[in-house]
Design goal:
Length: 200
Amino acid sequence: MAAEIIMNDKEMLRTLIKERIAALTPEQIASADEAIMDKLLSQSAWQQAQTVFCYLAVGREIATLPLLRAALAAGKRIAAPLITSPGIMEARLISDLADLHPDRYGIPAPPPDSALLMPMEIDLVIVPGVAFARQTLLRLGRGGGYYDRYLSSCPALRIALAREAQLLDDILPAEAHDLAMDMLVSEKRIYLPPSPNFKP
């Protein structure tokens, strides 16, 4: 019964995964994150994308600054989230990582006067999450709904980054607005949905 309650309660699931992540050593985190980046950079979906919208990590999220540096070095256009109101974010172009500064929530963000990138212009979105289901690639976020709202109007490919400690074998509780990822990259392997719409 306890397991059933946990698997059907998003807040309890978030607590469970945060405890797993907190138990990881700095060495385990560094090793996992490096392996995740290596796997992502080897994917054709990443290599072919010209315009990438990528989250900026906070706390123990998988660090994305190395990914952004690689994107800039490869000549890609990159954008990062700028929160404009509760529950709403925009993709803003960045050309220099030195321009990023913590926003009111302590999350690195582009300057408010940075150029707006429309959802239809994006090829690939790198999506954060607290937990993911291995079989369905459904995502459990922090609860603010920012990515659910944004991705509902963005046709770009959705790739999530997650350590194995964030993955669950059981099906996550899902609502109508919850979107599955097109690919999930962990330190151990690449996960694809049951009926992928592309081949990596």
